[in-house]
Write a structure and sequence with these properties.
The complex is a heterodimer of chains A (676) and B (649). By secondary structure, chain A is an alpha/beta fold. Chain A is built from 20 helices and 32 strands. In chain A, strands 13, 14, 15, 18, 19, 20, 21, 22 and 23 form a nine-stranded mixed β-sheet that branches. In chain A, helix 14 links the parallel strand 18 (415-418) and strand 19 (441-442). In chain B, 28% of the residues lie in helices and 25% in strands. Chain B contains 18 helices and 34 strands. In chain B, a hairpin with a 2-residue loop joins strand 9 and strand 10 (212-220). In chain B, helix 1 crosses helix 2, helix 11 runs parallel beside helix 12 (346-354) and helix 15 (484-498) runs parallel beside helix 17 (517-532). The longest helix of chain B is centred in the first third of the chain and has 21 residues, at 12-32. Chain B is globular and about 135 Å long. Chain B starts with a helix and ends in a 10-residue tail after the last strand. Classes of the chains: A alpha/beta (676), B alpha/beta (649).
């Protein structure tokens, strides 16, 4: 009996354990159902895109991607030669991009400007050196960035003072005020190569800390321009921002609430003084390099950066996480005022297929407001079997795009923005994810509540991978965020754009913000914006449409050549769009009879404009000659070579006088006459 | 020994613990999802308002209320006339039929005998009225029986048919928009059949309905008898309060709560810019002034052409409502916020004070948002959730308000939801001492305008035809139908023809649920447009108090045809208004002409006024005089004497 009594508890202990295990398991399952366990996923990343293009263009950029990749190191030591692509595409349009392997004599021979980026200029083969010399002596322009070896010996200063860290630009030749002052204010992240003395006969165009960093030398009929500072780094740091930790890591700044460990785009801003900056410093530098330096020595045309020859554009975006179809309410009024915008919506905002179709039919476009994994705004999806879902995982970008596509009447999503204003701890990871999913434009770069060019630009710029390779996505920084309380006003930015900066200004407004609090003054300001656009000659369009315009612009073909000593054309009718300055100059000119017998310089441009609404710019002066007229060569008037005078107008781009000539879609041959 | 019994015995404490755990979970579940009990609403019946003895116009009322109507046809619409006269004249007298006597008729210009009164009028009453007419009075008889034939001259049969629409207004002599739109007015109730007769002035027919005589006029002695063969009282009542489809219910569904727009009498009224009810009333009543000029208290303070009333129901988002109110204050205007009792705290009441907004209650019915409940139980155990009645919801808000603000008397129902019956919701509101409801109006993007035939408030009637002691103020535009262009058109029409209060209902959640630039643009410019079009910007409470003051004011007049002088005695009362410094005092309106002759001069309290001090009404029918002092005034209006015809030689 006693033995039985001892055995009983032992046998029931197992039952007891089983019972309570079952109870605990049941509780555990219920707990997991209420609080699912989150698992992570690996993001899909792009490896970058080694852009190489053979275009009918005056300019060729030579870039060595292998050298870029092998450079390694932190941000300051990296090779950012690919930044030249953005500069030329943004400021000129069509450009040939070659690698040392793909660079042929034919391609070289057809170009008027050759840019050897720092990735190739350190060491140039002798054969190429000879070919370049021959090309320059024939009257063309060679640009060499931080040259080494034979290139430095042939055309650059000695470079014996070695590399130094640049503090500020101190001089820019022929750049008028206020742009001269503005260029001195540009925050710099760059090294420059100091020399013990300037090269004999060189003309200094740009200086850093008093040392010439961009200078030209005449070689035969042509010129060589040496860029002796890390132009790529300076530009990339301004536009794409800099990682604030080693190994391209980004840490959230102290000003954010401590509970968020996720960085924001504001953590990428290169310099504090860029916050609220009224000047697009990166664009100022790019424009000076192109219009103030390159095209000064090799005068040529560029395609105007805005459709319909406007003074600039405002790119409107509306992000929505709650209104669904109602998120497009601002679009209706914008359409009434001849404008259009992009709606960036999350997949769970409530947008229906019918709503999306209506937006699309009206002309608006829809992009993704991306709930990026690893941020407080991430979107989680449950995982499990037969309704029991104890796990969750973040919805990937690919899945979110697929979900959005199911709602859209089109099969593509091209624009996006990260919800919540977050970024990643990896400097380039969001861009790599976007590039992997073939997104074209991102608008995540923004300083909350602060307007201005915090990223030095208002234009979409080519995002680069941390190894320096371009990614297929462009970043369009928001210049005027929703409910901005600091920085320049939109009116001030529009005025500054009209006066000379000629900018794309991205304007964000959240449609749902009026749901929470109907701020009628802000609503009134939005209504007034359309009058301001008219007053300042700007158009409002969507990032998607503008990106399409820029893509078409890049895909156009444009070649030019300068012919000296041609007969000036017989004076035609007065060009009606000449501005006051031109009129004053005309008054001081001799009579048409006197000028008609003068010899002129001709800039002949052959161009294929791939969309309507394009325009080209040409310099207002060629040496001692000034712009006289623009004529479209045509056979339609009956005979080969007859021409019709085109309406043109003067524009000032960062104080540099240009002439803006509207184009017809298709092939155009345009003669620009310059007379003494 | 049974091994199972051993297990039970050994694990009995484990099982007991499990049972206790389960019980604990059960209690937790009960506490987290308490049983819901619906609110119990009290209700009151309608009652006869106190009689007024002074006024040019006398409305005769039945001596006893009728039985409860089971169908609309059975409804006693006598108090539909009460609404008509209250809206159009402001000051009028009323008396029970049994009190009818030559003394009570003395000095009256017009006596109205509604259908039910006409049916039960004793012969002595008919005789007294005949004497009144012969001495120059004007009598209106609605659907008279055989006993009235000697006075009306109409051999109306007892045969009736459904009235549909007006087919001719030739005899009425109306022009412009009135003539254009009268044939579109949907008529309700019955049409009494009568022999075809010539149009006025060749014959007695003023208006034809369905190609039959509808309104007849007969001159008797020095006076006139108007015979309304259609049911004017019920037409007005049905257009304003809604037309039930059967058993005093609306629509064919069985829902207990329906949007108020489901009560609309005619489909075309869902998108109409014409206040059909007011148009019909004004065009017929204006004919009284062809016999002698009949003055009235103007619809608005001073010479305002209309009124604009903005309201913002806030079912959930009180912050947005503060935003709307604040913008109105910045525009030197004002508005009413209808707030849900569980969505406001004392700090927010302070913000509404700062925004100078009036507060009303949003009656939460628990349909589009969670109901408001209080949990009932002992200690922490509260397994019952009792829904708050309207009275309790008002109490919840009142506790947050300073005592001097008084009891909340304005209501708007959640999503304009209404009981699917004739008057129960009104009766519940009346029981909660509500003074004005603003829930009647359009619902959905396709509806806007005068769905209830008027922009004016009206007293709702119960099933016995007795008025309830609150006003219904219909609104014309709401979140989905408000645009700047549409509002401007309403304001222009109001200034030019209709003189209406234009109420806009823009919920606080408008920009969340149906966001549109048009609504926000319309709202932004509403106050400036109202001022531009001479409309008084007021809150519902201010308008209500003004209407009370107008009703309490007294206006009587005497007409001397020989001197062509209209002498008006008026005792004016006013109400407080944030936007009017001297208070809201009704103006006095007189016909612009009499028999084609303009006003020659006007003397106010012995002081001759410049003719320019009188403002012409939109349709040029009236001249309006603003009087900036409350109290007694005497106004003498002289009409020009026609030039004598030049004798032929």
């Amino acid at each position: 009996m006693q033995i039985e009594l001892r055995r009983k508890p032992r046998s029931h202990t197992a039952t007891r354990i089983l019972l309570w295990t079952l109870v605990l398991a049941t509780f555990g399952l219920f707990y997991l159902r209420a609080n699912p366990w989150q698992i992570d996923i690996d993001p899909q990343l792009s490896e970058g895109n080694e852009i190489s293009r053979e275009a009918q263009a005056d300019i060729i950029i030579v870039i060595d991607y292998d050298a870029i990749k092998h450079q390694g190191g932190d941000f300051d030591r990296h090779d950012w030669s690919a930044a030249w692509i953005n500069t030329i595409e943004q400021e000129v349009g069509p450009v040939t991009i070659a690698t040392p392997r793909s660079l042929s004599h034919k391609v070289l021979g057809e170009s008027r400007i050759v840019i050897l980026t720092s990735s190739v200029s350190a060491q140039v083969p002798d054969a190429l050196m000879a070919r370049l010399r021959e090309h320059v002596e024939a009257g063309n322009l060679l640009v060499v960035e931080r040259p080494g070896g034979a290139l430095r010996e042939a055309w650059a200063a000695d470079g014996r003072a070695g590399e130094r860290r640049g503090q500020q630009f101190t001089f820019a030749k022929d750049l008028p005020e206020p742009y001269q002052t503005q260029i001195r204010e540009i925050p710099l992240s760059t090294d420059y190569i100091g020399s013990t003395r300037a090269r004999e006969g060189s003309i200094t165009m740009l200086s850093i800390d008093g040392a010439p960093v961009v200078y030209s030398n005449r070689v035969g009929e042509g010129h060589v321009i040496t860029v002796d500072f890390d132009y790529g780094e300076a530009l990339t740091a301004l536009q794409q921002g800099k990682p604030n930790k080693p190994d391209f890591q980004v840490a959230p700044s102290a000003r954010q609430p401590s509970e968020h460990e996720t960085p924001q785009p504001s953590d990428l801003v290169m310099d504090k003084k860029l916050e609220g900056a009224p000047v697009p410093y990166a664009d100022l530098l790019e424009r000076y390099m192109v219009h103030g330096v390159l095209l000064k020595f090799a005068p040529g045309p560029t395609l105007w950066t805005f459709p319909d020859a406007r003074e600039g554009v405002v790119l409107a975006i509306h992000q929505d996480e709650q209104l669904g179809d109602g998120g497009a309410w601002m679009l209706d009024h914008e359409l009434e005022r001849g404008s259009v915008s992009s709606l960036l919506t999350t997949t769970d905002a409530g947008l229906t297929a019918a709503g999306a179709a209506t937006i699309h039919r009206k002309g608006g476009d829809i992009g993704l407001l991306w709930r990026m994994q690893g941020t407080p705004s991430e979107q989680l999806e449950p995982m499990g079997i037969a309704g029991f879902e104890p796990l969750t995982r973040p919805t990937s970008l690919k899945q979110q795009i697929a979900q959005l596509k199911q709602t859209l009447p089109v099969s593509y999503v091209r624009t996006c923005r990260i919800a919540g204003g977050w970024w990643s701890t990896r400097w380039d990871e969001p861009f790599r994810q976007m590039a992997k999913e073939n997104l074209r434009v991102d608008t995540s770069y923004e300083l909350p509540r602060t307007s201005g060019y915090a990223f030095g630009t208002g234009f979409p710029f080519l995002a680069l991978r941390s190894d320096g390779t371009p990614l297929g996505v462009r970043e369009l920084p928001v210049v005027v965020p929703d409910r901005a309380v600091e920085g320049p006003t939109l009116t001030e930015l529009l005025d500054s754009s009209k006066q000379g900066h000629h900018m794309a200004i991205t304007y964000a407004m959240e449609p749902a913000s009026f749901a929470d609090y109907p701020d009628m003054e802000r609503f009134g300001a939005w209504l007034d914006l359309f009058d301001e656009l008219e007053r300042t000659g700007h158009a409002m369009t969507s990032p998607y449409r503008y990106d399409n315009f820029m893509r078409t612009r890049r895909a156009s073909n444009m070649r030019s050549r300068v012919i000296e000593g041609v007969d000036a054309p017989k004076p035609g009718f007065k060009i009606p769009t000449l501005d006051k300055k031109e009129l004053e100059e005309q008054e001081n000119k001799p009579s048409p009879e006197a000028t008609s017998k003068k010899r002129a310089t001709l800039l002949r441009i052959t161009i294929e404009a791939k969309s309507k609404g394009m325009a080209l710019t040409v310099p207002a002066r060629l040496g001692t000659h000034t712009y006289s007229s623009a004529r479209q060569r045509s056979q339609r008037l009956g005979k080969e070579g007859s021409s019709a005078e085109l309406e043109a107008r003067h524009v000032s781009l960062i104080g540099i006088d240009l002439v803006l000539v509207p184009l017809e879609r298709g092939f155009n041959t345009i003669d620009i006459y310059y007379t003494p | 020994m049974n091994p199972h019994s051993n297990i039970w015995r050994s694990l009995r404490w484990d099982f007991l613990l499990l049972v206790l755990l389960s019980a604990g979970l059960g209690i937790y579940w009960l506490l987290s999802t308490p049983y819901h009990r619906a609110a119990e609403e009290k209700h009151v019946d309608g009652s006869r308002p106190p009689d007024r003895t002074e006024g040019d116009i006398l409305l005769l009322l039945p001596d006893a209320p009728s039985a409860e109507a089971k169908e609309f046809d059975e409804l006693d619409c006598t108090y539909g006339w009460f609404n008509i006269l209250w809206q159009e004249y402001g000051s009028f007298a009323s008396a029970l039929t049994r009190n009818l006597s030559p003394e009570i008729l003395a000095g009256r210009s017009v006596v109205i005998v509604p259908r039910r009164v006409a049916e039960s009028m004793p012969t002595t009453g008919v005789s007294a009225l005949a004497g009144f007419v012969r001495n120059g009075g004007q009598l209106v008889i609605e659907q008279p029986g055989e006993g009235w034939m000697s006075l009306s001259g109409v051999s109306a049969s007892t045969k009736k048919r459904e009235a549909k629409s007006i087919t001719s207004t030739e005899g009425l002599g109306v022009h412009g928009p009135t003539r254009k739109h009268l044939p579109s007015v949907p008529l309700l109730g019955t049409l009494q059949m009568a022999p075809q007769q010539e149009m006025w002035p060749s014959g007695p027919t003023l208006v034809e309905i369905d190609s039959q005589p509808g309104v007849l006029l007969r001159e008797v002695g020095q006076g006139r008898v108007y015979t309304f063969l259609f049911d004017m009282g019920c037409t007005s009542t049905g257009l304003q309060q809604g037309l039930p489809t059967g058993k005093m219910r609306f629509g064919r569904g069985t829902e207990t709560l329906i949007p108020t727009s489901a009560r609309v009498a005619d489909e075309k009224m869902r998108t109409t810019r014409v206040p059909f009810s007011d148009l019909l009333e004004r065009s017929l009543l204006a004919h009284f002034s062809t016999a002698r000029p009949i003055p009235k208290l103007w619809y608005y303070p001073g010479t305002y052409a209309g009124a604009l009333l903005l309201s913002h129901p806030a079912a959930m988002n009180t912050r947005a409502a503060i935003g709307y109110a604040d913008w109105n204050r910045k525009q030197e205007g004002t508005s009413t916020i209808f707030v849900a009792p569980d969505r406001i705290n004392s700090a927010q009441t302070g913000l509404f004070e700062q925004a100078e907004a009036d507060l009303g209650i949003l009656w939460v019915r628990g349909q589009s948002r969670p109901p408001i409940t209080r949990t009932i139980g002992i200690g922490a155990l509260k397994p019952l959730a009792q829904e708050l009645s309207l009275e309790e919801q008002i109490g919840a808000i009142s506790r947050l308000l300073p005592a001097e603000r008084g009891r909340i008397g304005l209501v708007h129902t959640e999503e304009t939801l209404w009981g699917n019956d004739w008057s129960l919701t009104f009766e519940q509101m009346a029981a909660a001492r509500i003074k004005m409801d603003t829930s009647f109006g359009p619902n959905g993007a396709e509806e806007f305008g005068y769905l209830f035939g008027t922009g004016f408030p009206f007293y709702p009637l119960d099933e016995r035809g007795l008025p309830l002691p609150l006003l219904e103020q219909p609104f014309l535009l709401h979140e989905q139908s408000l645009t700047r262009e549409r509002l401007e058109r309403f304001l222009v029409n109001s200034r030019s023809y209709f003189h209406q209060p234009i109420a806009i209902n823009l919920p606080a959640h408008a920009m969340e649920r149906n966001p549109s630039a048009g609504a926000l643009l319309g709202f932004r410019d509403a106050l400036s447009m109202a001022k531009e079009h001479n409309h008084w910007v007021a809150t519902q409470r201010e308008f209500l108090e003004f209407l009370y003051a107008r009703r309490q004011s007294v206006l009587t007049s005497q007409w001397s045809e020989t001197t062509r002088r209209l002498t008006i005695s008026v005792n004016l009362l006013g109400a407080n208004s944030r936007t009017l410094e001297g208070g809201a005092i009704p103006g006095v309106a007189v016909p612009r002409t009499w028999r084609g002759e303009e006003i020659e001069k006007v003397i106010l309290d012995g002081r001759e006024l410049s003719p320019r001090e009188l403002i012409t009404s939109g349709p040029s029918t009236d001249k309006i005089l603003a009087i900036d002092q409350q109290g007694r005034h005497t106004i003498s209006v002289y009409y020009k004497t026609p030039e004598a015809p030049v004798p032929l030689e």
